[in-house]
Write a structure and sequence with these properties.
Blueprint (H helix, E strand, L loop, with lengths): L3 E8 L5 H14 L5 E8 L5 E3 L10 H7 L7 E3 L12 H6 L2 E4 L10 H8 L9 H8 L1 H10 L7 E5 H6 L1 H11 L4 E5 L9 E3 L2 H14 L2 E6 L4 E9 L4 E2 L3 E4 L7 H6 L4 E3 L6 H17 L4 E10 L4 E8 L9 H9 L3 H20 L5
Parallel strand pairs: 1-2, 1-5
Antiparallel strand pairs: 2-3, 3-4, 6-9, 7-8, 7-9, 10-11, 10-12, 10-14, 12-13, 14-15
Bound molecules: adenosine-5'-diphosphate and magnesium ion.
The site of magnesium ion has 2 residues, from loops.
Amino acid sequence: MAKLRVGLIYGGRSGEHEVSILSANSVISAINRQKYEVVPIGITKEGKWLVGQSPAPLVESKELTVRLLGSDAGGEEISLMSKTKSGEILSGLRDKIDVIFPVMHGPFGEDGTIQGLLELAELPYVGGGVLASAVGMDKALMKAVFKQAGLPVGDYQVYLRKEWRDNPTLVLTEIERGLGYPCFIKPANLGSSVGISKAHDRMELKKALDLAALYDRKLVIEKLLTGREIECGVLGNDEPLASVPGEIIPCTEFYDYDAKYILNDSQLTIPAPLDAALAQKVQELALRSFKAVDCAGLARVDFFVDIDKNEIYVNEINTMPGFTKISMYPKMWEATGVSYSDLIDRLLQLALERFEDKKQNKIS
Ligand SMILES: Nc1ncnc2c1ncn2[C@@H]1O[C@H](COP(=O)(O)OP(=O)(O)O)[C@@H](O)[C@H]1O
Ligand SMILES: [Mg+2]
């Protein structure tokens, strides 16, 4: 049987460019070579697409992979829109590839934009579609959808950057009255804790709102949630399954960018030490969150679990979670009985199943 050609799109125009390269490296080392042939497609930080000739240059060295993304990598450069004829977007890729794995995180990777492009190109791809990806990326929309689905979401407020700049006193007063201190301030659309602060007083709150306003026109302010940070993996399309939950113990005051990518000192415990009933509740809520945003393929749902207060809150859904072999999502599945290489296989099959399912839709 001919091998399926997997277009592995990685890199991209986001703060999580490097993490995505690491995830792509992991996938390349673990994918079942009997079944799949990998075509690496690197996107530079400037947004240039490079289609590599073979996965060979992508080895476990960050330096080398970054070079592959550079202009002298010898990869074939493709132009997405400008060179296409008769409106056939990505036609070049369609001849070379059977299924795409967009292993990219954050804006332009996990937010529906690349998913939209792949829909137009009629290419099957791993993970949630345009809607799930976009909703999962926007913390304000995500919370609204979760609330509507009856999921437990902490108190929050949303302001436009314009409202903050035009009427700071009103915004500060409303936040203090509604949420109090400490509170969390976040740009609505970003990941990796970029632009996120914890404010303990009015001075810090002002600074935090200014910072978040550098990254997005929409700002989300949340009440402090207490408890442990528990995460749960979801895998599947219309009948998804949940993994055993895992726990993160950040090495800093909260799980900020440094704790995630620089200090490397946060602790992951899988399975999370939770009693069986609580673990089951987390899994149930993870599946409901997945369905609430109409996700597909994979997602990691993150929670705050306060055992003393007997409270669980959904913090967020990540529709393309970190995917290195040692990332939380693959490790939670490994602990559930699905090896990393089987997980990749399952995700590619789910992408193809979803594509086939969609073909049943009558167009007119
Ligand atoms: N409301 C909150 N209460 C307590 N801690 C929070 C709250 N919101 C975020 N945090 C902390 O900040 C981290 C990053 O926030 P999160 O919303 O997960 O952003 P990102 O999408 O960048 O991962 C969380 O993992 C947690 O440690
Ligand atoms: Mg998070």
